[in-house]
Amino acid sequence: MKKSVKTLAATLLTGVMTFGAINANAMSPKDQDALGKAKITAVQALSAAQAKIGADAKVKGIDFKHHYFGKDHFEVEMFANGQKQKVAVDAASGDILGVESEAPKTVKVSPTADIAPQVSFAQAMDTAVTKTGGKVAEADLEHKRGMAFYKIETINNGVVYKVAVDANSGQIIDMPQKHKGKHHKHDRFEKGERHEHHQNEGGFRQN
Questions:
Q1: For the region Disordered, what residue ranges are annotated (predicted)?
Q2: DSSP character for 110?
């Protein structure tokens, strides 16, 4: 998730294989502990964001943020009314902490990007949680090689799991590759591989 440029409103301020388990520093121990103590789940945070922005908004991703502006929260990125919306949902109470809005930049769009997935974001996250027994730290809707899928990261007892869920069938699939035969850190997850995850240092501006 990239930084927002314009603030609409913000008050105070988560070998290629079917799924991979990586003992890695994707999240710091403090971040993992904070996620473990979150009172709401990523699915509940998504529901709160949809209630705020609208159930018909397109969801791009959700990410757990530890102690940004004094609050642990889930940041939900959505598209509605021609605007990119970022909604901060308190990880303890489920309250909306703030919303940021900006006009999306013109980008090359995948042929599958405008096709509504048959499987919802919430359903895909539930699938990943059931498979790994962990909590969702980050999830994104991706479009690669003519297919749409959810890329979901869960944490369970210090183990990071990467799960790809087909956006149309709901089945757990192999993680799609950008380029056949080439290694890309964020596209290929082999057993035991270290996955470097850098959190966005941006956040919701205080008013």
A1: 176-207
A2: P
Residue 93 is predicted with a pLDDT of 97
Average pLDDT for runs of 10 along the chain of length 207? 35 37 64 95 98 94 87 95 94 96 66 75 97 97 91 94 96 72 36 35 43
Cα–Cα distance measured from residue 127 to residue 99, given in angstroms and rounded to the nearest whole number: 28
Which structural domains are found in the chain, ordered by start? 19-173 (3.10.450.40)
| Structural element, H or E, at residue 8 | none
Q: Please state at what angle helix 42-53 crosses helix 121-132, rounded to 10 degrees.
A: 170
- The count of residues in the chain is 207
pTM for the whole thing? Answer: 0.72
CA angle 75, 77, 82 (to 5 degrees): 150
